[in-house]
Amino acid sequence: MSKYRLRGRGRVDSSKPVVFTFDGKPYTGLKGDTVASALLAHGVHLMGRSFKYHRPRGAIAAGSEEPNALIGTRRGPGRFEPNTRATVQEIWEGLETTSQNKFPSLKWDVGAVNDAAYMMFSAGFYYKTFMWPRSFWDKVYEPFIRAAAGLGVSPTEEDPDTYASRYSYCDLLIVGAGPAGIAAAREAAGKGLSVILVDENPEMGGTLLSEPQSKINGKAAWNWLEDELAALQAAGVKLMTRTTAIGYYHENLIALVEKLTDHLPTLPEDTPRERMWRVRAKQVVLAQGALEKPMVFHGNDRPGVMLAGSAQTFLNRYGVKVGNTPAVVTSHDSAWYAAFDLQDAGAFVQAIIDTRAQVRQDLQDEARARGIPVKLSHTVTATGGRLRVNNVRVNPVSGGTNVGAGQWIKCDALLMSGGWTPSLHLFSHTKGSLTWDDDLTTFLPKDTPEDCVITGASRGLWGVEAALRDGAARVGEALAKLGIGSSASEYSVEDDRTGSGVMMRELPTDRSPGKAKAFVDFQNDVTAKDLRLAVREGMRSIEHVKRYTTNGMATDQGKMSNINGLNIAADALGKKQPQVGLTTFRPPYTPTTFGAFAGYHRGEHFEVVRKTQIDAWAEEHGAVYEPVGQWRRARYFPKAGETMDQAVTRECAATRASVGIFDASTLGKIEVVGPDAAEFINRMYTNPFLKLAPGKCRYGLLLGDDGFIRDDGVIARVEEDRFHVTTTTGGAARVLNMMEDYLQTEWPDLNVWLTSTTEQWSTVALNGPNAAKLLAPFVEGIELTEEAFPHMSCVNCTVAGYPARLWRVSFTGEIGFEVNVPAPYGRDLWEKLWEAGQQYDITPYGTETMHVLRAEKGYIIVGQDTDGTVTPADAGMDWAVGKKKADFVGMRGLARPDLVAPNRKQLVGLLTEDNSWLEEGAQIVFDPKQPIPMKMVGHVTSSYNQGTTGRPIALALVEGGHSKMGETVYIPMPDRTIAAKITGTVFFDPENSRLKI
Amino acid sequence: MIQIHCPYCGETLPELEFAYAGEAHIERPLSPSEQSDEQWAEFLFLRENVKGPHFERWRHLHGCGRFFNAVRNTITDRFYITYKAGEPRPDLATLLEEDK
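Predict the joint structure of the above. Result:
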């Protein structure tokens, strides 16, 4: 049996030893232990090093608020997690744990030199120390900060665990299964309601687990607890342990994270590690209890110095004495009970040091009866011991501030209590308002806009009986709103431990306060001195003090430090606490894994990958893909050994020489149907559409009402009242949304239906001089001649035996067809064309070749050659704007003064003088000799060197470009400046002679 | 996550199903060409940016697809009412009174 373990005491199972390791050394604990309780049972207090000063640290608390005892846990490859709180992690056979922030070892850490240099790391040191010289930032300061920053180490392997997410709906959700929460659940149970009771601990009971001495309605506390939980279970209340309510969101949506496997020695195959619940509750009861405040004095962070209530928890719940000769320092009655319990368990309490002059007589009597020395009106001014506290310096105080001579008292643990802070985290997430209570010197909850009540210690009630009665009474308000009457059950509790205390800032000291290392935020190493310094240096808002000092910004989110920090800052500012106010509480309540947030959305499920019916063929033929919106599109089809440039050059040449085949299925498609379909299209697009005959296609340009280009595509009038509209691949959803908006809200009188048909069609494009020859044998119903089926025609016919919408269109400048067949036939059609195309050396090409071929013809790509500030005139596409139309979306916008102003950026071609390739996005200047910063007059939008013109070509937006044909502009690059001549945008076959069959 | 009542579906559903669509009751003039530059600029660009009850549009994007109007408090995210597109602007004072 380990030295500090009390056999048979607590809720751990003495018959079930569990071996785990800490920094490689095996320790034996008991089933039910946390890492912290098991280590403390062996007298191990040193569990970690602090973040900034690398000071030795031990567990200060016993629960999820623990700021110091952060460890790494490991369970084989990929299952490493840093920054786990040793006070929360349950042990299991074989668990590997390691301490953090130390090198080479926990007991001898090189980083502790920071502690000696602590004057340098005072509040705001980030902003001061690293400012000068400027040149040191990149090479010295930033690498140093990055190496030193962060807690623990990030995992390097992929997490093999799964994380689940679920929705749930209930009538009543109760957060916290202490006495108040259980009493609330009891009132609600058996009334036909769906009730959920959650608690972050492995066991329900809250404070009852640490206070077994009380008797509730005549029953021993733990017996009462067992009976109540069984009754709740029987009544159908859903009891969820190891489940933390991490955030309270709008309209009673509460996020719960349920930990399912971290406590198990072997992982079940069918269980996720964690499950994120999104619970929409009609009513919520918050019963989160209260957190104990540390006291602020020099050396309050030494291992062995811990919260008195937590020491009581370790004793009563885990059967572990945190020391054999502890001392207690307090300003609240509750710590006296911790001293009594330890003394009764066989420890020798060295002294109870209370800062107050007056303490309840019954407490003093009980201390005397146990032989515990009591020192009222005393303060603690220092602690001693290297890796563990071994003495404490105690001084008498008179008149509140006169500190007398110090006396060292030996001890192996120092228990402190600065009183209790109601847990208002979730209540504050609701934007609930708080009110300052002068008697309790703490904030209490006031109003909340949500359907929620708060009860028990969370609203400043101390003692089991008060919590039980309040829980039973307050839940009545929630039940009433659900239309259910209730009369609060009566509770009476014997041996209840109520108490009161006073609020202290830093404890009075006889030493220079400037040299005191009196910690407020343990995890971020913020001292009382830092907070006062921040105020002296001009911080007035508590939010600024917080950020300047980093107080409350650690992973414990200020659970221990907020109120002490506020009290000290308020004192330094000379204001009352409510005038200073609290910093904002934000979710999550406790650190939460990324896995829980990600849930199923990882790997292939992170984002939908849309694939066409022809995608698998492309994959089999070695396509290299690129993402376009959510689609993955074949970018090019390299042959063995080919680079992208070589492949694209080959694909371009082959298409212009014979025939290329291209998967155009990703183009957005919208079916516009109805008696007013033509009128609608005519109003949406710049081009005239009323007179477009069925069987004809027309290029359409879509503007916003501001006059700027939004999208484009070919539109086919399939029938009198039916249009097949295509959009850009990335713009389909946006365009449909815009169309619906105008149709529903501006022109509801138009009789038109809009349907997205993007995924209903497979679209195979054939381009090249042999395209018609290849396709013709497959087509029934139309002859592919210039006369019967001229450029920009469409027809419903049969292709390869499939019903098809066949279009004659071209985005390459070659003879072109787009065959639309019902989506599932796409691959078969493609393969038939592929097979028959072998006689023409048919070449599959991807988006890159498509881009090059269209750029050679000066066809724009919306979003690449336009950026939301380009008009049709800017793009040289005035021809697409119907001049005689009464109105279309963007028509009035095009007449805005700025849009008709001279010298707008206009789309032009660029040919470099030295035949070099330009980078897309490169900035353009008129005069390369002007002083820096130069006036930038445009940028390169498209640039290719794989085309068929034998030289690199580029498109660019240039100020007044249309009137500067033949002039030279300059593109300054890091190593040189490139000169280029402004040209038209059509580089290939300007007469369009190749479009003719 | 807030919940929104779709006046077309008649259901109150999670915000995830909806998309915000800007300020409500801004009508596109029937004859834009007759608008002055100032009037057109106002139609295009000028919005209320209210702190408090705001008349705005939403679309039941992942549901019926309809655009509708709502009055939402931009401070608290509370929806006072949702109503169909084309219906008249409800009286704000009455809405706020009913909400008390």
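Chain A is about 20% helix and 25% strand.
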